[in-house]
């Protein structure tokens, strides 16, 4: 009898706990509606903090609430992989990509964003309290300190620096160089002058060398024409003149005087 009473009491307590759990846990439609509200709040926060970019610091709580609510909704399987669009995960991934592309998670590493903000505010205070004609010299050490700190972060994180710091650094550099005109770089004309002189001298070198080569060729050509080709013919040598062909030695040689006498005698006989 006593055991049955204990069993009934146990079953009643279990039923009450189950009913209480059902009442305390929100339904899936309610979780979905709350997720929509958190997503809307994040879109509003990102829009209001887009220029200048401050989404990492001002929208951190809103982004955390949206992420937690999406994790709670993940138990409602009827909202996932039910169609080709799969809108709920697609919308969540789109909003999360804004956060990841801005490298907002890197803002909290080593308290980097807070350190950068302190240095940037110190520089801004110096610029605002200093006269325009003295600001470049007075605040130069603060600007270099801020720029060096940002460069070290850029090297440490391989370019994945919190975008909020990137936007602030770009604006600070632009104001320092163009607004305050503190980066008046004087160009070095030494290399430019050397290159310009070399380019200008190239045509002169080309035409001068061409003229010299042409003159040398004309001189060499004239020397060859001045030589008489007949004078260059070698005369008969002793060995050549003393040597005669067999046919030449057998022919009789007749002088011009004997030829004239013979011609006169023939003429007399005829007449």
TrEMBL record:
The chain crosses the membrane at residues 189-207. The keyword Cytoplasm does not apply. Residues 234-264 have a biased composition (Low complexity). Keywords: Membrane, Signal, Transmembrane, Transmembrane helix. The keyword Zinc does not apply. It holds the Pfam family OSTMP1. It comes from the Eukaryota. GO terms for cellular component: cytosol. Residues 224-271 are annotated as: Disordered. This is Osteopetrosis-associated transmembrane protein 1. It comes from Glossina morsitans morsitans.
């Amino acid at each position: 009898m006593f055991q049955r009473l204990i069993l009934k009491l146990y079953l009643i307590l279990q039923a009450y706990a189950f009913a209480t759990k059902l009442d305390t846990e929100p339904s899936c439609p309610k979780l979905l509606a709350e997720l929509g509200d958190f997503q809307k709040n994040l879109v509003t926060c990102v829009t209001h903090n887009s220029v200048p970019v401050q989404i990492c610091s001002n929208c951190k709580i809103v982004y955390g609430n949206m992420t937690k609510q999406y994790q709670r909704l993940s138990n409602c399987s009827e909202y996932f992989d039910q169609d080709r669009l799969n809108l709920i995960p697609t919308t969540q991934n789109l909003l999360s990509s804004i956060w990841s592309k801005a490298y907002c998670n890197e803002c909290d590493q080593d308290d980097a964003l807070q350190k950068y903000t302190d240095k940037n505010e110190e520089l801004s205070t110096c610029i605002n309290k200093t006269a325009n004609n003295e600001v470049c010299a007075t605040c130069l050490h603060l600007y270099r300190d801020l720029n060096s700190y940002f460069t070290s972060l850029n090297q440490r994180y391989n370019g994945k620096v919190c975008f909020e710091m990137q936007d602030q650094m770009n604006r600070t550099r632009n104001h320092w160089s163009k607004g305050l005109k503190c980066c008046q770089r004087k160009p070095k004309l030494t290399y430019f002058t050397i290159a310009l002189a070399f380019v200008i001298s190239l045509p002169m070198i080309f035409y001068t060398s061409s003229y010299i080569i042409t003159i040398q060729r004309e001189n060499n050509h004239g020397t060859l024409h001045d030589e008489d080709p007949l004078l260059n013919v070698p005369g008969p040598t002793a060995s050549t003149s003393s040597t005669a062909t067999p046919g030449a030695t057998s022919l009789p040689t007749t002088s011009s005087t004997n030829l004239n006498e013979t011609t006169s005698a023939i003429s007399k006989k005829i007449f």
